[in-house]
Write a structure and sequence with these properties.
The two termini are 25 Å apart. Strand 5, helix 6 and strand 6 form a beta-alpha-beta unit. By secondary structure, the protein is an alpha/beta fold. It has ten helices and twelve strands. 34% of the residues lie in helices and 14% in strands.
Length: 384
């Protein structure tokens, strides 16, 4: 179960928050220590002894987790920055200027899409009745004026996972491109994004990738490596150390890099990626599905309302119950680390280190909270 890789799991309590921030692996601490020692010992020489090439090395570790070619990977401070990099490479001045998306997306993605309206983008946000992905509406909205279809691979309020290949087919039939937010599926299950036709994949390391905050990723399909983003910096220059006054794009997707690489964040991310390789994504996904089935069956049998698809195979790594805020607050007070979100409910993120016994304990705690009406003592506020 690799539980000894996570110091937080040794302190008691049950960690059910991989959907919001994965626990810190020991390997991440070692990576930070290595960074500090290298900087201390080598100073500026560290750039020539591995630091400058680190983004390309870390791309080699991330790419198999996404099912993509490493040459198309670039790193950004967060997913919002990765989306901005994509949008900055597109031309919205012509007749093909529509972006199709849905109201289900994480708000930050929508903010970025709408920000490009000042550059000619025409953003169409489709409603999602009952909180489910509106396939029919998407198929009807994506037409010959569409440049980009933007969607999540799985949704944070429902854990619903959508078919990436079907999305890509809808986009490509109309001559459009697919931007897929994989934040909720990367590190949860084996992915094969390149073969499924995804054109741009974005995400970050906070959740199941065990990489902490501060790093986002972008993968660009090879046909678009030669497009020129407007969000640029010296790390994406063809000759960065020539310090030329005019920006010239580097070969391939390296041009999507902007400023100086964030070395400690990259090293921490690499540690998380490599731990997932050791465990194996097939093993991770099999374990999560088993746990999700156990939780969903148990919760349903106890009379709790499940949010999102019932079949674990149609979900990501989060299980969600339609319960008031007070349940999450009370669970956290009792040592179960989880969260609550408006429009969703109590969310619990499962991972390869989660135990079946912890699922049973959480269900027992929920019953006790309901019986005691302990949840009523809490006013809505911040939970994790």
């Amino acid at each position: 179960m690799y539980r000894d890789h996570f110091p937080q799991l040794e302190g008691g309590g049950v960690y059910l928050a991989s959907h919001t921030l994965g626990p810190m692996p020991r390997e991440a601490q070692a990576a930070l220590d290595h960074y500090a020692q290298t900087w201390k010992a080598r100073g500026v020489r560290a750039w020539a002894e591995g630091w400058w090439d680190l983004p390309r090395q870390v791309a080699q570790d991330l790419a198999p987790l996404l099912g993509v070619s490493p040459q198309g990977v670039s790193f950004h401070p967060h997913t919002s920055g990765a989306v901005a990099a994509v949008l900055s490479s597109l031309d919205f001045s012509g007749g093909r200027n529509k972006i199709v998306t849905t109201e289900l997306e994480f708000p930050s993605i929508g903010y970025q899409l709408k920000a490009w309206e000042k550059f000619g983008a025409r953003v169409v946000v489709l409603p999602a009745p009952q909180g489910r992905f509106p396939w029919e509406a998407v198929e009807g909205a994506v037409d010959r004026s569409t440049l980009l279809l933007a969607a999540c691979h799985a949704y944070f309020k429902s854990s619903e996972r959508v078919d990436a290949a079907r999305l890509a087919a809808i986009a490509h039939r109309a001559g459009a491109r697919l931007l897929l937010d994989t934040y909720q599926t990367a590190g949860v299950m084996p992915l094969d994004l390149e073969a499924q036709g995804v054109d741009y994949a974005v995400g970050g390391g906070v959740k199941w990738l065990l990489s902490g905050p501060g790093i986002g990723y972008l993968w660009v399909r090879p046909p678009y490596w030669d497009e020129v983003p407007s969000l640029v910096g010296w790390a994406g220059h063809a000759r960065p150390f020539a310090f030329e006054p005019e920006w010239a794009p580097a070969d391939g997707a390296v041009r999507y890099h902007s400023g100086t690489p964030n070395i400690p964040v990259l090293l921490v991310a690499q540690a998380g990626y490599r731990l997932l390789h050791r465990v194996g994504l097939a093993n991770v996904w099999s374990h999560i599905q088993g746990l999700a089935g156990r939780f969903l069956d148990g919760a349903e049998g106890l009379g709790f309302k499940i949010v999102g698809p019932r079949n674990p195979a149609d979900r990501s790594g989060t299980v969600i119950l339609d319960l008031p805020y007070g349940y999450a607050a009370e669970l956290n007070q009792r040592g179960f680390v989880c969260d609550w979100r408006t429009g969703a409910g109590v969310r619990m993120g499962l991972h390869f280190f989660t135990l079946e016994s912890e699922i049973d304990q959480a269900l027992q705690a929920l019953v006790k909270i309901r019986q005691d009406q302990a949840w009523e003592a809490h006013q809505p506020g911040a939970v994790t």
